[in-house]
From TrEMBL:
Recorded family membership: Belongs to the UTP23/FCF1 family. FCF1 subfamily.
Entry keyword set: Nucleus, Ribosome biogenesis, rRNA processing
Organism: Sesamum indicum (Oriental sesame)
Location of this chain's protein in the cell: Nucleus, Nucleolus
Name by which UniProt lists this protein: rRNA-processing protein FCF1 homolog
Source lineage: Eukaryota, Viridiplantae, Streptophyta, Embryophyta, Tracheophyta
Domain of life: Eukaryota
Main location: nucleus
Positions of the PIN domain: 65-164
Gene name for this UniProt entry: LOC105173199
SUPFAM superfamilies: PIN domain-like
One GO BP: rRNA processing
Amino acid sequence: MGKAKKTPKFAVMKKIVTHKAIKQYKEEVLNPNKKDLSKEKLPRNVPQVSSALYFKYNTALGPPYRVLVDTNFINFSIQNKLDLEKGMMDCLYAKCTPCITDCVMAELEKLGQKYRVALRIAKDPRFERLPCTHKGTYADDCLVDRVTQHKCYIVATCDRDLKRRIRKIPGVPIMYITQHKYSIERLPEATIGGAPRM
């Protein structure tokens, strides 16, 4: 058996030493400690996953439930003649504590005389008041930030944009109003409409 013929490789090209390559090599030799900007653009840390999550199942959620209430949820509850605490208990079959942040209170106060009933309901002593430390009074950002940090809340809202933002956060159930009663979304223990599976 004879030797196999070596065929010339057509794809291999000679490396051409260009002016740009020489300049780059000189910079590397002269300034070895110079920061590489391409490396700086890469993310330095990976967002930490909450220890309360088991995949997408939130183990921190359990009765008594703490429900973060949005401005429009209170307004729609009044329109549908629903009692906040009683409606939540009918939906979840457990004790619920409605929580109202300073931003939601500020938003209700800004709405003026038309929403005075909603403001009076929000000032109910049965509801838990949560102080806000951030700047600004935009309630949607406040609720999203709080839920991202602490995954022990259910968010009650009828706002489509806020629902869309909260759906991106794993393990946070959303309460909303449908057919004149409260319903829950993304809570494993309950089905939509609040009825338990048999």
